Amino acid sequence: MQESSNKIHQLKTSNLSKDFGDVEVLRNISFSFNAGDSVAITGPSGSGKSTLLHIIGTIEEPTKGKVEINGTDPFQLSEPELARYRNSVIGFVFQDHHLLPQYSVLENVLIPTLAFKQNHNVTSLAQDLLKRVGLTHRMSHRPAELSGGERQRVAIARALINRPSILLCDEPTGNLDATTAGNITDLLFEMHSIEKNILIVVTHNLGLASRFQNNLRLADGVCSIETENIVDV
Ligand code: ADP
Ligand code: MG
C-alpha cells in the first residue's frame, strides 16, 4: 500500500495563470478540493482544459500563481524529487490509452511501478485491479487484441497501480461510443468511491459532467465553479 505520507488531503490553486508566449490561456484560477471530491472540467476546445490538468499534474509549471498539495508547492521540489512525487501521488488517464503495444495487459499495468523500488507485491495488486476493471481473462493479451473500452479499462488500472491520491483524466471517453463511455465513467466513480481520491475528469459531455460533485467550466481563460460542496478557497 501507499505510504500514508503520500496521502493527499487537499489540492488547492491560487490565482493560477498560464501563458504560451503572448497567448494567455488561463487567468487567475483559484479552487480547493479535498480527498473524496469529484470534479468535471468542461469548456470549448482550446479553452485550456488540458493545460490546467497538466499544471495540476505537475508536468507543466504555471506562469503565475501557485499549486499547493497538502499545503506544499510541488514546483519547489528538485526535478528528481518532483518525478518521484508525481509518480506516487498522481495518476493520469488520457483520451488515447497510451498503452505499449509490445507488452501484455498485465505488464502495461505494472509499468508505473518500475521507476521506483516497491515494498509490496505489485503483481498481485495489478491482478486485483484488472479483476476490478473486469479484465481478468485478458491479462496476457496485447492491447491490439482488445476493444477501445477494454483498453481504457487497462489505462485506468495502470493509472491506479501506485494508489494515486489525485486521478486526472483528459477526455477518457472521448473516443468511445455513448454506452461504453457511460460504462467507463461508472468504473471511474466505482474506483473513486473505493480509493477516496480526488477525481478530476475533462469531458465534452455535459451529461457526464453533471454526475460530478463539482463542475469547473473554462471559457476565455477564466473559470467558473459550480459545486455541491462549500469550497474553501
Ligand atoms: P483544451 O484542452 O481545452 O482543448 P489546451 O489546454 O490543449 O486546450 O490548449 C489551450 C490553448 O493553449 C490552445 O490555444 C493551445 O494551442 C495552447 N497551447 C497548449 N499547449 C501549448 C504549448 N505547449 N505551446 C503553445 N501553445 C500551447
Ligand atoms: Mg485538451
Folded structure, characterized:
The chain has seven helices and nine strands. The model has no long low-confidence stretch (mean pLDDT 91). With 233 residues, the protein is α/β, with parallel strands linked by helices. 37% of the residues are buried. The strands form two sheets. A six-stranded mixed sheet has the order 5-6-7-3-8-9, with helices on both faces. Strands 2-1-4 form a three-stranded antiparallel sheet, covered by helices on one side. The protein is globular and about 50 Å long. Bound molecules: adenosine-5'-diphosphate and magnesium ion. Magnesium ion (MG) binds at residues 49-50, 170.
Structural class: alpha/beta
Helix content: 25-40%
- The chain-level mean pLDDT equals 91
Biggest sheet statistics: 6 strands, mixed
